[in-house]
From TrEMBL:
Protein's name in the database: Peptidase U35
Keyword DNA-binding belongs to the record: no
Organism, as annotated: Sphingomonas endophytica
Annotated InterPro entries: Peptidase_S78_dom
Residue ranges annotated for the Prohead serine protease domain, each copy included: 3-117
Gene Ontology molecular-function annotations: peptidase activity
An example Gene Ontology biological process: proteolysis
Pfam families reported for this sequence: Peptidase_S78
Amino acid sequence: MRIVGYAAVFDRVDRAGDVVRRGAFAEAGPVPLLMQHRGRAIGDVLSVAEDATGLRIEARVDDAAVARLVRCRALPGLSVGYRARVVQQGAWRAIRRADLVEVSLVAVPMQAAARVDDILDD
């Protein structure tokens, strides 16, 4: 199965007090798809690109058990694993530039608006 959604949404404060800014992931390339930021890859992120809203991804889920969890909405969220390169500290920590390390399917995303928008059958 394939999924499409936003792994990060710009200019929204997450549960940790971070705000991802436009351009933070401008140089992002292919990364693995994990579950809950742990373990082995359960698929691949096929495309990753910034648009006006945030970091839009399309990924392939190879693990059948995880695909079932996604279909029944037990894993509705997306989350990014990254290394912050350029930050600006204010009321919140603004992530201006970061290296994308992985994208994860999660039960509760750090950023509430980071969600799987569409499930596509291969």
